[in-house]
Amino acid sequence: MITVTPARATDLAPASVILAEAFAHDPVMSAIVPGSHRRHERLTELFHGLLASGPYATGTVDLARDADGTLLGVAAWEGPHAERGAFGRQTGELPRFARALGWLGMPRALALLSRLARHRPRAPHWYLAEIGVSAAARGKGVGKALLAAQLDTLDTTRQTAYLESSTPDNRRLYRRFGFEELSPIDGVPGATPVAMLRLPAAR
After folding, report:
1. Pick from 183, 173, 181: which is nearest to 198 by CA?
2. What does the alpha-carbon distance between residue 106 and residue 177 come to, in Å, rounded to a whole number?
3. Helix axes 142-157, 168-176, angle to 10 degrees
4. What band does 203 get if pLDDT is binned at 50, 70 and 90?
5. Where are any strands of DSSP class E within the chain?
6. Nearest to 201 by CA among 144, 146, 143, 158
7. Residue from 181, 176, 177 nearest 164 by CA
8. Is 64 helix (H, G, I), strand (E, B) or coil?
9. What pTM, to 2 d.p., does this model score?
10. Cα–Cα distance between 7 and 150 in angstroms, integer?
Protein backbone atom coordinates (compact mmCIF):
# COMPACT_ATOMS: atom_id res chain seq x y z
CA MET A 1 0.00 0.00 0.00
CA ILE A 2 1.30 3.45 -0.95
CA THR A 3 0.57 6.45 1.26
CA VAL A 4 1.22 10.07 0.30
CA THR A 5 1.85 12.69 2.98
CA PRO A 6 3.41 16.18 3.09
CA ALA A 7 7.10 16.41 3.94
CA ARG A 8 8.51 17.94 7.09
CA ALA A 9 11.76 19.92 7.11
CA THR A 10 13.69 16.84 8.24
CA ASP A 11 12.40 14.96 5.19
CA LEU A 12 14.02 17.26 2.65
CA ALA A 13 17.44 15.57 2.81
CA PRO A 14 16.20 12.03 2.06
CA ALA A 15 13.77 13.43 -0.52
CA SER A 16 16.71 15.08 -2.27
CA VAL A 17 18.53 11.75 -2.45
CA ILE A 18 15.52 10.18 -4.18
CA LEU A 19 15.34 13.03 -6.69
CA ALA A 20 19.08 12.90 -7.39
CA GLU A 21 18.74 9.21 -8.24
CA ALA A 22 15.64 9.74 -10.35
CA PHE A 23 17.14 12.62 -12.34
CA ALA A 24 20.59 11.12 -12.83
CA HIS A 25 20.03 10.69 -16.58
CA ASP A 26 17.45 13.41 -17.18
CA PRO A 27 18.55 15.48 -20.20
CA VAL A 28 17.56 18.85 -18.74
CA MET A 29 19.28 18.15 -15.44
CA SER A 30 22.34 16.98 -17.36
CA ALA A 31 22.52 20.45 -18.91
CA ILE A 32 22.20 22.11 -15.51
CA VAL A 33 24.64 19.79 -13.69
CA PRO A 34 27.03 18.48 -16.37
CA GLY A 35 29.96 16.16 -15.85
CA SER A 36 30.40 13.05 -13.74
CA HIS A 37 32.61 14.09 -10.81
CA ARG A 38 30.65 13.60 -7.56
CA ARG A 39 27.50 14.06 -9.61
CA HIS A 40 25.13 12.25 -7.25
CA GLU A 41 26.28 14.39 -4.32
CA ARG A 42 26.03 17.55 -6.41
CA LEU A 43 22.52 16.69 -7.59
CA THR A 44 21.48 15.95 -4.01
CA GLU A 45 22.73 19.36 -2.88
CA LEU A 46 20.97 21.06 -5.77
CA PHE A 47 17.63 19.39 -5.08
CA HIS A 48 17.86 20.13 -1.37
CA GLY A 49 18.36 23.80 -2.16
CA LEU A 50 15.58 23.82 -4.75
CA LEU A 51 13.10 22.07 -2.45
CA ALA A 52 13.84 24.32 0.52
CA SER A 53 13.69 27.58 -1.43
CA GLY A 54 10.72 26.69 -3.63
CA PRO A 55 8.10 23.99 -3.12
CA TYR A 56 8.57 23.44 0.62
CA ALA A 57 8.32 27.16 1.29
CA THR A 58 5.51 28.02 -1.13
CA GLY A 59 3.53 24.87 -1.93
CA THR A 60 3.95 21.24 -0.98
CA VAL A 61 6.53 18.48 -1.10
CA ASP A 62 4.61 15.20 -1.14
CA LEU A 63 6.27 11.94 -0.10
CA ALA A 64 5.15 8.44 -1.10
CA ARG A 65 5.93 5.62 1.34
CA ASP A 66 5.19 1.93 1.52
CA ALA A 67 3.57 0.15 4.47
CA ASP A 68 6.96 -0.07 6.24
CA GLY A 69 7.55 3.67 5.91
CA THR A 70 10.24 3.35 3.27
CA LEU A 71 10.45 6.47 1.11
CA LEU A 72 9.55 5.58 -2.47
CA GLY A 73 9.05 8.86 -4.31
CA VAL A 74 8.76 12.63 -4.14
CA ALA A 75 6.59 15.23 -5.87
CA ALA A 76 7.43 18.90 -5.34
CA TRP A 77 4.86 21.55 -6.23
CA GLU A 78 5.37 25.31 -6.14
CA GLY A 79 2.31 27.29 -5.15
CA PRO A 80 0.63 29.92 -7.34
CA HIS A 81 2.57 32.83 -5.82
CA ALA A 82 5.99 31.23 -5.49
CA GLU A 83 7.73 34.18 -7.16
CA ARG A 84 7.03 36.37 -4.12
CA GLY A 85 10.15 36.43 -1.99
CA ALA A 86 11.91 33.93 -4.24
CA PHE A 87 15.19 35.89 -4.36
CA GLY A 88 15.52 35.95 -0.59
CA ARG A 89 14.78 32.26 -0.24
CA GLN A 90 17.24 31.34 -2.99
CA THR A 91 19.92 33.55 -1.47
CA GLY A 92 19.57 31.59 1.74
CA GLU A 93 20.40 28.40 -0.17
CA LEU A 94 23.46 29.81 -1.97
CA PRO A 95 25.94 27.53 -0.15
CA ARG A 96 24.07 24.45 -1.40
CA PHE A 97 23.85 25.84 -4.91
CA ALA A 98 27.56 26.66 -4.90
CA ARG A 99 28.46 23.12 -3.80
CA ALA A 100 26.19 21.67 -6.48
CA LEU A 101 27.09 23.92 -9.39
CA GLY A 102 30.28 25.74 -8.52
CA TRP A 103 30.36 29.51 -8.57
CA LEU A 104 31.17 29.50 -12.29
CA GLY A 105 28.34 27.07 -13.05
CA MET A 106 25.61 29.05 -11.33
CA PRO A 107 25.12 31.61 -14.14
CA ARG A 108 24.69 28.78 -16.67
CA ALA A 109 22.15 27.02 -14.47
CA LEU A 110 20.29 30.27 -13.80
CA ALA A 111 20.09 31.00 -17.54
CA LEU A 112 18.64 27.55 -18.26
CA LEU A 113 16.11 27.77 -15.43
CA SER A 114 15.12 31.26 -16.56
CA ARG A 115 14.53 29.95 -20.09
CA LEU A 116 12.17 27.32 -18.70
CA ALA A 117 10.42 29.86 -16.49
CA ARG A 118 9.62 32.13 -19.43
CA HIS A 119 7.19 29.51 -20.75
CA ARG A 120 5.14 29.30 -17.57
CA PRO A 121 1.58 30.65 -17.73
CA ARG A 122 0.96 34.16 -16.47
CA ALA A 123 -2.26 33.15 -14.76
CA PRO A 124 -1.94 31.63 -11.25
CA HIS A 125 -1.07 27.93 -11.33
CA TRP A 126 0.59 25.14 -9.38
CA TYR A 127 3.93 24.14 -10.85
CA LEU A 128 5.20 20.57 -10.67
CA ALA A 129 8.86 21.42 -10.19
CA GLU A 130 10.10 17.86 -9.60
CA ILE A 131 8.73 14.36 -9.36
CA GLY A 132 10.88 11.28 -8.94
CA VAL A 133 10.66 7.66 -7.83
CA SER A 134 13.43 5.48 -6.41
CA ALA A 135 14.84 2.87 -8.78
CA ALA A 136 13.57 0.03 -6.57
CA ALA A 137 10.00 1.36 -6.68
CA ARG A 138 9.60 2.12 -10.37
CA GLY A 139 6.69 0.46 -12.12
CA LYS A 140 4.70 0.10 -8.89
CA GLY A 141 2.36 3.06 -9.34
CA VAL A 142 4.26 5.47 -7.10
CA GLY A 143 4.33 8.30 -9.65
CA LYS A 144 0.62 7.90 -10.30
CA ALA A 145 -0.14 8.02 -6.57
CA LEU A 146 1.93 11.18 -6.17
CA LEU A 147 0.25 12.91 -9.10
CA ALA A 148 -3.25 11.89 -8.07
CA ALA A 149 -2.79 13.20 -4.53
CA GLN A 150 -2.21 16.81 -5.60
CA LEU A 151 -4.32 16.81 -8.75
CA ASP A 152 -7.38 15.66 -6.80
CA THR A 153 -6.89 18.66 -4.54
CA LEU A 154 -6.49 21.02 -7.49
CA ASP A 155 -9.67 19.65 -9.06
CA THR A 156 -11.56 20.29 -5.82
CA THR A 157 -10.21 23.83 -5.54
CA ARG A 158 -10.51 24.46 -9.31
CA GLN A 159 -6.84 25.31 -9.88
CA THR A 160 -4.53 24.83 -12.87
CA ALA A 161 -1.34 22.76 -12.97
CA TYR A 162 1.73 23.21 -15.16
CA LEU A 163 4.94 21.28 -15.77
CA GLU A 164 7.77 20.71 -18.21
CA SER A 165 8.44 17.19 -19.46
CA SER A 166 11.73 16.18 -21.03
CA THR A 167 10.89 12.63 -22.21
CA PRO A 168 8.12 11.07 -24.34
CA ASP A 169 7.44 8.37 -21.71
CA ASN A 170 6.75 10.98 -19.06
CA ARG A 171 4.51 12.93 -21.41
CA ARG A 172 2.37 9.85 -21.99
CA LEU A 173 1.84 9.54 -18.24
CA TYR A 174 1.00 13.21 -17.86
CA ARG A 175 -1.48 13.08 -20.74
CA ARG A 176 -3.32 10.29 -18.93
CA PHE A 177 -3.74 12.68 -16.02
CA GLY A 178 -5.20 15.41 -18.22
CA PHE A 179 -2.13 17.47 -19.11
CA GLU A 180 -2.00 18.87 -22.63
CA GLU A 181 1.13 19.80 -24.54
CA LEU A 182 1.56 23.53 -25.17
CA SER A 183 4.87 23.94 -26.97
CA PRO A 184 8.46 22.69 -27.06
CA ILE A 185 11.04 24.73 -25.15
CA ASP A 186 14.10 25.37 -27.30
CA GLY A 187 17.54 26.42 -26.21
CA VAL A 188 18.28 23.69 -23.63
CA PRO A 189 21.50 21.85 -24.62
CA GLY A 190 20.85 18.20 -25.39
CA ALA A 191 17.11 18.33 -24.74
CA THR A 192 13.83 19.83 -25.90
CA PRO A 193 11.44 19.77 -22.96
CA VAL A 194 7.75 20.34 -23.60
CA ALA A 195 5.50 22.70 -21.64
CA MET A 196 2.28 21.04 -20.45
CA LEU A 197 -0.85 22.49 -18.85
CA ARG A 198 -3.74 20.88 -17.00
CA LEU A 199 -7.02 22.61 -16.32
CA PRO A 200 -9.06 21.34 -13.38
CA ALA A 201 -11.12 18.30 -14.29
CA ALA A 202 -14.90 18.53 -14.24
CA ARG A 203 -16.52 17.08 -11.15
Report:
1. 181
2. 34
3. 50
4. low
5. 3-6, 60-65, 71-78, 126-133, 161-165, 180-184, 194-198
6. 158
7. 181
8. strand
9. 0.94
10. 13
